[in-house]
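Appendix C. Worked example: Ciliary microtubule inner protein 5
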Amino acid sequence: MGGRPASGLPRTTSAGSRLRPAKPPASVSPVARGSPRAALGAQEDELWREMVEAEGRGRRRWAENWAFLKDYDPMGNKKEPEQLPEQVPRFSDTVPNCSSQVVGSRLATPLGRALVLMDFAFTEGAHRKKPGAGLQPT
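Step 2, the predicted output written as structure tokens:
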């Protein structure tokens, strides 16, 4: 009951159409299954590898031909290498720092006030506006 037919013929439904073959196990990769999506993924992977290789070639070519420009300013004068400080403080006196790295407790400072004004100016369109006195229902 409910088993395979003894004749060895493929199983069919009552309408006569063939049943779908059993799916391969999930451990089999799409490439091994030969799906078109897997083939597309392999092509995309190959294109990505070629693009990365071309970018590396371009970087090496730039270093050979144009790297000397990084030592000169736009006027052609030789730039002095910038000396980095020995130690950099972790917190700033001018930029507000808080645990979430957003504008925090220093809103009363001139910089904090400027940031609040900029925030208001950039998000003004998202705020609800009261209709004018002429548009109020009576």
